[in-house]
């Protein structure tokens, strides 16, 4: 019997992008039956008209759902609604502001799930296309093609190198057994992936087979990230929902990944501290949306890190050059703090392959390898989120004649 794959496509005001998305799915090659389900969530642009055009010309493959009132804003789980109407044994995701760029993508992913019963989920590399500045880069979620364990999957996506949702491929039968809390949040991609990671191994293709459009106008992440200083409500909701998920997932997995998930929660709330008004944080604590013990811990990190000036004085006396490790808002916050207290920094540093700008705050940005080539005895202040710092510090420890201070932990000094 021929295998059937159902492709779930969500659309909302995607008239600029939806043709690319649908065409990339229709172009898939292989020996399988293809079903495409497109859900329009009451778009106000020409998205429904474009969908009707494709539906009329591909009635054997495409089924469209047209909403008169927006369902996402009502808290409806759109993915489950579509999957319940699907008839395939396998599910692939492609939101309509993304698209696939490999015609054999589905065939490759199907082959993995059919060959390996202990594999529950297949992903692949993707291009990330920034819709604001039109730059393009590889996500490089994992270092190479192959199987990855549960812990690998928990870690990835908590920092910067998240997997693209348009790379998701899994068995439909497992969806029906998913506990309800995995699907109760505004963001679905991370919780869904963690559920499937509990069921078996994750397979990853290092070749890019999709394009993720980042910061599209009207997209969820554009609303959360770009507008958080103007209107913090979406950002606050995003952080509190995800941290609630991490807490419940911690319990669900019998605290197997407790340290990792706690670091992520602290990282998120650190982001809140430098992005929103203190009154908002105090209100969230009063409403029991934030854990007061974590807030107390973070206050210690942000305000009472008395050892930093002492250590900086020591290294300045050695005539070291000083580099802030990281280029996030958090890294800039600490750079400003050090400069404001009279300390000189030489610039910013990022891990090789992560550089996306040449200058921040008027200071140069270099990759780590460049710093090591150009400067003797550099001193690094690791000011990245705690969830991202472990790999950085592990790398620094393995280098010779390199000293660092981890803003959110006890540093190592020779």
Write the layout of secondary structure elements.
Blueprint: E1 4-11, H1 18-26, E2 33-40, H2 47-57, E3 62-66, H3 78-85, E4 90-93, E5 99-100, H4 105-115, E6 119-130, E7 136-138, E8 146-148, H5 150-155, E9 169-171, H6 189-197, E10 201-214, H7 220-226, H8 233-252, H9 258-275, H10 278-286, H11 292-303, H12 307-317, E11 322-325, H13 329-340, E12 347-350, E13 359-360, E14 363-367, H14 368-374, E15 379-382, H15 386-397, E16 403-406
Parallel strand pairs: 1-2, 1-4, 2-3, 6-10, 11-12, 11-15, 12-14, 15-16
Antiparallel strand pairs: 4-9, 5-10, 6-7, 6-9, 8-10, 13-14
Helix pairs in contact: 8-9, 9-11
Task: Explain briefly what this protein structure is.
It contains 15 helices and 16 strands. By secondary structure, the chain is of the alpha/beta class.
> What spatial form do the alpha-carbon principal axes imply?
globular
Fraction of residues in H or I helices? 25-40%
Here the CATH topology of the largest domain equals Spore Coat Polysaccharide Biosynthesis Protein SpsA, Chain A
Corresponding CATH superfamily of the largest domain: Spore Coat Polysaccharide Biosynthesis Protein SpsA, Chain A
How far apart the termini lie comes to 65 Å
Give me the Rg, rounded: 23 Å
Second-tier CATH architecture of the largest domain: Alpha-Beta Complex
Q: Structural class, please?
A: alpha/beta
Q: How many domains? A: 3
Helical stretch tally: 15
Unreliable stretches = 410-414
């Amino acid at each position: 019997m021929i295998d059937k794959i159902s492709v779930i496509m969500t659309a909302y005001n995607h008239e600029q992008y939806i043709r690319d998305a649908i065409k990339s799915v229709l172009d898939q090659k292989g020996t399988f039956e293809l079903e495409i389900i497109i859900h329009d969530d009451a778009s106000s642009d020409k998205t429904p008209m474009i969908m009707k055009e494709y539906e009329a010309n591909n009635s054997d493959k495409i089924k469209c759902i047209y909403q008169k009132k927006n369902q996402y804003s009502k808290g409806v789980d759109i993915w489950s609604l579509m999957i319940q109407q699907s008839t395939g044994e396998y599910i692939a995701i492609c939101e309509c502001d993304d698209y696939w760029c490999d015609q054999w993508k589905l065939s490759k992913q199907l082959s993995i799930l059919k060959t390996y019963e202990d594999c529950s989920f297949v992903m692949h590399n993707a291009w990330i296309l920034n819709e604001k500045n039109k730059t393009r880069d590889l996500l490089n979620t994992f270092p190479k093609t192959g199987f990855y364990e549960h812990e690998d999957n928990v870690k990835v996506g908590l920092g910067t190198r998240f997997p693209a949702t348009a790379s998701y491929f899994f068995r439909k039968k497992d969806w029906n057994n998913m506990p309800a809390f995995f699907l109760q949040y505004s963001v679905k991609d991370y919780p869904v992936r963690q559920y499937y990671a509990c069921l078996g191994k994750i397979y990853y293709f290092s070749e890019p087979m999709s394009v993720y459009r980042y910061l599209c106008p009207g997209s969820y992440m554009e609303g959360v990230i770009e507008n958080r200083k103007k209107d913090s409500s979406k950002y606050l909701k995003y952080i509190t929902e995800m941290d609630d998920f991490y807490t419940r997932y911690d319990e669900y997995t019998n605290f197997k990944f407790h340290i990792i998930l706690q670091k992520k929660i602290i990282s998120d709330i650190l982001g809140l501290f430098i992005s929103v008004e203190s009154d908002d944080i105090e209100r969230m604590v009063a409403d029991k949306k934030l854990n007061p013990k974590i807030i107390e811990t973070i206050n210690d990190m942000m305000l009472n890190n008395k050892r930093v000036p002492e250590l900086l004085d020591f290294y300045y006396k050695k005539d070291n050059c000083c580099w802030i490790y990281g280029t996030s808002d958090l890294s800039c916050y600490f750079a400003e703090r050090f400069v404001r207290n009279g300390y000189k920094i030489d610039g910013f540093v990022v891990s090789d392959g992560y550089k996306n700008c040449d200058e921040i705050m008027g200071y140069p940005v270099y990759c780590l390898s460049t710093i090591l080539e150009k400067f003797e005895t550099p001193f690094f202040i690791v000011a990245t989120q705690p969830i991202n710092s472990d790999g950085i510090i592990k790398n620094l420890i393995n280098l010779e004649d390199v000293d660092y201070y981890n803003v959110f932990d006890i540093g190592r000094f020779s």
